[in-house]
Amino acid sequence: MDSPSFYTVLIVDDDPVTRLLMKQSLQDPNLTVIEAQNGEQAIDLFAEHLPDITLLDVSMPGMDGFTCCRKLRSLPKGQQSAIVMVTIHDKVDDIEKAFEAGATDFITKPFKWPLFAHRIRYILKANNTLRELSQSRSKLAKAQAIAHLVYWEWNFKQNAIECSADLHRLLGIEDTSQGISFKQILRRIFPEDRPLFKQALRRAIQSKYPYDIEYRIQLDNGELFYLHERTEIIEDYSGWKIVGTLQDITSLKRSEQEIAYFTYYDTLTDLPNRRLFIEQLETAIARARHKKQSLTLMFIDLDHFKHINDTYGHAVGDALLCEAAARIKDCLRDADLIAVSKDKDDRVARFAGDEFTVMLTNIDNVDVLANIAQRIVAKFEKSFDIKGYNVFSTVSIGIALFPEDGDNVQSLMQHADVAMNHAKELGRNNYQFFSAEMNDYLYERLQTEQDLRQALERNEFLLFYQPQIDVKTQQIIGFEALLRWLHPIKGLLGPLTFIEVAEKTGLIIAIGEWVLQQACLQTRKWQKRFDIHWRVSVNLSAMQFNQQLLLEQVGLSLKNSGLPASSLELEITETAMLKDVMETIPLLRALKDMGVGLAIDDFGTGYSSLSYLKNFPIDTLKIDKSFVDEIVENPKDAAIARTIVQLADNLGLRTIAEGVETIEQVNMLTTMGCKELQGYYYSKPLPVSEIERLLESGNG
Question: How far apart are CA 41 and CA 63, in angstroms?
């Protein structure tokens, strides 16, 4: 059962008797009755109480009922109240004027009192229903406005479309009494989307098939926005009709486009990112395979980018990446090539960090590809002017071809990356094509790296020692510790097969520390056993020499072994020492203060700058084997060796020649004044057990 409704009734009449009779007739606990004796008072009471119905006499002194009605309608919520005009004897003019003034209904005098109350209650109920309906429509309109939803209805037999007012605004079409036709709508639809709309509408008319589609609308000013249209086909007494809703989904589409952009594009360079590039590459390979065409993949890496980032900061680094992307695209644009995508220049992508990719289709001529790669290399040889800095960054490029170098995404990318790394190994600032031989070499190298990582844990390394001989006494005065790897499958390996990999992977730090510890321990054992203070020479790699823990490692190795510092000599290449002179000199002096000997290994093969010999606290110059090999036959090698010995004597340094293999070499070096020798003439590098037999035999 419905709960009772409570209403407020305003009676406006200048006759107090009429007001009294009306009030008595409307006696009801659900009705509140208030009275006004003229129009001015009625307006004040209406504004205060907001009555649900106003009984308004037409003929009153001062303000008549028609004027009062118009004023009541203009008040807040004045449109929601029922206003019933009270007139005499059914005057037609009064009735027309009442409705023109905004009256809801009229009642004539004299009243038929038994029916009066029922008539008022009926008007109240009807007005309440209308008000609820109006509120529902208002809520629906607000909901539709919030959802950007527009309603329309079209009878198949009619040309015009019945629609909500927002449809005109949405389509930018003037609201006229003629309504909107499908021709007008069609003219607004973006040309590329019109076929979709026509097909959907045709099916709806012919097959009574509802549709649910999205299309774009273009206004006269060129603005584009997206609509989602959903329809139903119904039949009623007037025939078949389409009922549809249109929703403005432009914001949603823009959000989707932004999400797609962040998913598939690099926000810094505005290039396709790794994800989109791989999808494009898959598509391009499938197309090339189907059409039996070629496809070229280039991997481009900026040389020394990390150094630039660390030196100038990330803002300069980011700007450099943007400039690099522009230069690469310029090179391809100049080449006038066929792109993978004709609509968008997606040939170039930022694959990762400082690495870019280029994808080219249907270019069979290797010379053309080489020309493009060289064009890119040359473009990067010019400096970048970024934020006031003159920055240099060359490129290393690897090139792989489909289908020769790989017939799928993974193999093609892997081989382009292999070729790029090979370009870096060859000194950077160049390009390299992939080859099977290169792949075999790099596969072997990768396998070496994997085995090398486990070699320390498995104790697969061991040290060989080569005696160093005093020319005058012909006795052993020390040993050079030389690293060997007892590989579980390949057997005993020399350093040339794995040191380069160890240095490039950083494993040389741990390996070098192990060598230092073992050499000190072993030499100290021999010193104690034979009571002779031999020295041991240990080679330091450039990476090991430049790292901050070297002093700590040397000190710890001497402490743990008990080896006197004077018995340890560290051999360092010229290249390593001159890499950062400002850091080298303090490090060398700190080592010297510990009492450790310092030798320049392979002297004469590097920079050979005499100035550093004056500034560096060096003890020994080691004459490289390359000068000793032909010292007897080649006067130039003899002259170089003689100069090194004389230079060392003048500077108060020792010299030791390595790679001595013949008595003739021994005699010539002795004549030159070289005091120490090592090489196969005396002994090849030997394991610990054989060195000990040599020492026990008295040959030491």
Answer: 10
